[in-house]
TrEMBL record:
One of its GO terms (cellular component) is plasma membrane. This is Probable membrane transporter protein. It comes from Methyloversatilis universalis (strain ATCC BAA-1314 / DSM 25237 / JCM 13912 / CCUG 52030 / FAM5). It is a multi-pass membrane protein. The chain crosses the membrane at residues 12-39, 45-64, 76-94, 100-119, 139-164, 176-194, 201-222, 228-247.
Length: 248
């Protein structure tokens, strides 16, 4: 990689790391379409390369969220175990899919998720109150792990609204739980994509370094913003990405 490429990828990784920390998503939802559009990567290679940046960002993001909103370790372990096993199965399949098919799946997923979140944001918000269903939280790992394995992204995007709506968690607590689900899943997905030689390390590593410098700042801002504004920003991020993929 040339010096000019580094001057682009380091700030890019820093921007993605900040937004990943802010929304608890690792930055992959923006990085994957960008790697395909700006660098001409096929879908599987873009997903594998984005995971290089996402894994360290997710580790730091989860640690920061856990400091502010501790989640019982037993629940974290159960959630992570279900998600990791599901990710391992689906990533093995996704790394061998036709890139065109994978790109269509990614575009459809982001568009549907954007519309769904816009509908939820427009609905009246309930007061978060943890309930008896909390013992079912690990089952969310089946959904989040499938998304991480197949698309390299989306585990947190799917899980966070489920934690809020179904289990009455506050947005920041939901994002902490989502990171507990996504972090080990992303590591497993990265290993699977790397084994299938679907990772550009020269591109991914500088982005990861840039992200490490800013992810904590994103987490700090997330805890200063009002709850309603967090949900609105989260919805607009998904909508913008979904429209980007559709127009493409």
């Amino acid at each position: 990689m040339s010096a000019s490429d580094l001057l682009f990828t380091l700030p890019l990784g820093a921007a993605l790391g900040f937004f990943g920390g802010l929304f608890g998503i690792g930055g992959g939802v923006i990085a994957i379409p960008l790697l395909g559009l700006a660098f001409g990567m096929d879908q599987a290679l873009a997903q594998g390369t984005a995971l290089v940046m996402m894994v360290p960002n997710l580790v730091i993001g989860w640690w920061r969220y856990q400091q502010r909103h501790p989640v019982p370790w037993r629940r974290v372990a159960a959630l992570a175990a279900v998600a990791t096993a599901t990710t391992a199965l689906t990533a093995h399949f996704a790394a061998r899919l036709d890139p065109a098919v994978l790109r269509v799946l990614f575009g459809v997923f982001m568009s549907a998720l954007a519309l769904s979140l816009m509908w939820r944001t427009g609905a009246a918000a309930d007061t978060p109150r943890p309930g008896r269903r909390e013992r079912l939280i690990p089952l969310v790992g089946l959904i989040g792990g499938s998304s991480m394995g197949l698309l390299g992204v989306g585990g947190g995007l799917l899980a966070a609204p489920l934690f809020v709506r179904l289990f009455r968690q506050r947005q920041t607590v939901a994002q902490s739980l989502a990171l507990a689900l996504v972090t080990p899943s992303a590591a497993v997905a990265l290993a699977t994509y790397a084994q299938a030689q679907r990772v550009d390390w020269a591109m991914g590593l500088p982005m990861a370094i840039g992200g490490l410098l800013t992810v904590s700042a994103g987490v700090a801002l997330a805890h200063r913003l009002p709850e309603a504004r967090m949900r609105t920003l989260f919805a607009f991020l998904l909508l913008a990405t979904g429209l980007w993929m559709l127009l493409r």
